[in-house]
Amino acid sequence: MSGSEPTQQSLANTDSEQDVGESSANPTELPKIHYDHRKIIYNIISETLFVLLPFIVIGMTIGHRGQLHLLFTLPEWSIVSAVIVGQTIVRAVSVLLNREIPRKEGFVLFIAALLVLLLVPVLILLAIVLTSDTVSLSLEIVQTLFFALSLIAFAFGSAMQTIVETKDAQRRKHREALKKKQEVFPSPPCTKS
Hints:
The protein is an all-alpha fold. It is built from 5 helices and no strands. It has helices at 8-20, 37-64, 76-96, 105-131, 137-184. The two termini are 27 Å apart.
């Protein structure tokens, strides 16, 4: 064998490392996860726009009637807050299901916080707004504040789901590259001396 010919091991390392985009001394190690921050931001913005779309239409409609000052008195703010908190809880639970996550306690705390600190107060606020003859300024402010907090939680849940899906995809790609490498260059059998 001449010195210029590559060995099986060097070919296996370069093929596998090029496939997963990571040059590691140990090819069985998981590669460093690279996140596409633009994808996360675009997902958050597009989902948020669809949440805000009904309010744009409602605002245009009541603005056309000359009653734009009533926009924040509408119970729809609380209804949508409850819906997007529920969607965020579903996202967090779907991240937990069928995945091996080492520290699930953080996700459980996040879900509990969503239920206790957002969903329950939003539903109580909705009941108050629906049963009140007039909505006070303080109720308008609290309702808008809870909507903003719900929207932030929704954006966080969306980012969390995108990050976990990215990790899953990159891990899958790494496992496939390792499997392909093992098919091309099987490890030699162990011999006892």
